[in-house]
Structure formats: C-alpha cells, structure tokens
Structure to design on (133 residues):
C-alpha cells in the first residue's frame, strides 16, 4: 500500500470515529500508535487526529498555550524546546491549532509544527506501551 493510500484509509477511519459520539474522544491513556496519522501526513489526516481530544481536556484558554509555542518557535526556539512534554499538553496544542485554522483564520496550517507535535506524541505513545514478551 502506498503512503497516499495509507493516509486516505486513516482519514476515512478517523472520520467514522469522529462523527460517532460514542467513539469520538480518545483518552490519552488509550491512545495507540494507530490513532496517529503516519509520518508526513497531510492536513486532512492531522486535523482528523486533532478532533479526537476529549472535551474535558480543552478550553478557550488553549489558544494562549498554542500562541506561546508559536511565539517561542518564531523567536528561534526549536520545536523540541517549545512543545509540552506530556501527551495531554501536545494534544491540546494540536487541537487548538486545528480549531484556529478551521474557525478563526484563513491561513494554511503550520505543518512543521503539527509534524513536530505528532513525532513527540508517537514517542510518548510508544514509550507507554507495555513491553512485548
């Protein structure tokens, strides 16, 4: 399967999940590697992933958290230093970016920021898996 097909399949699966209220939210403790878009995914896949954040984790104050990251990176800080270290914090930043692009602005998404967030999320999800026997 090509990377393009993989991304398309991911988007379809996540859209079915996001539009079903019973499965929309995924707790960070339940997040699996398969819940994250593949490396190099486009905005559609990243946006679908961002929408799986449970409602109790976000608030209107999340835009301030996103702005702090964006401003730090604009000031020359590497993403690794600007991003939160925890999975919930990373998901909140990704969700706030998705909300901003979808509802408030007409600018393109910051794909390098999104991909940096997803790289760190993948590492954290892999690190939380129990060792295989």
């Amino acid at each position: 399967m090509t990377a393009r097909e993989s991304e398309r399949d991911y988007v379809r699966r996540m859209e079915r999940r996001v539009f079903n209220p019973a499965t929309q939210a995924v707790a960070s403790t339940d997040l699996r590697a398969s819940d994250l878009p593949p490396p190099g995914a486009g905005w559609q896949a990243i946006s679908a992933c961002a929408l799986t954040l449970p409602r109790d984790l976000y608030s209107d104050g999340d835009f301030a958290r996103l702005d702090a990251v964006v401003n730090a990176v604009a000031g020359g800080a590497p993403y690794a230093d600007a991003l939160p270290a925890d999975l919930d914090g990373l998901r909140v930043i990704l969700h706030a970016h998705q909300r901003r692009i979808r509802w408030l602005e007409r600018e393109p998404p910051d794909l390098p920021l999104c991909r940096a967030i997803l790289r760190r999320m993948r590492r954290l999800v892999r690190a939380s898996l129990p060792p295989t026997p």
Q: What stands out?
A: DSSP finds six helices and no strands in the chain. The chain has a mean pLDDT of 78. Residues 33 and 122 are 6 Å apart (CA to CA). The radius of gyration is 14 Å.
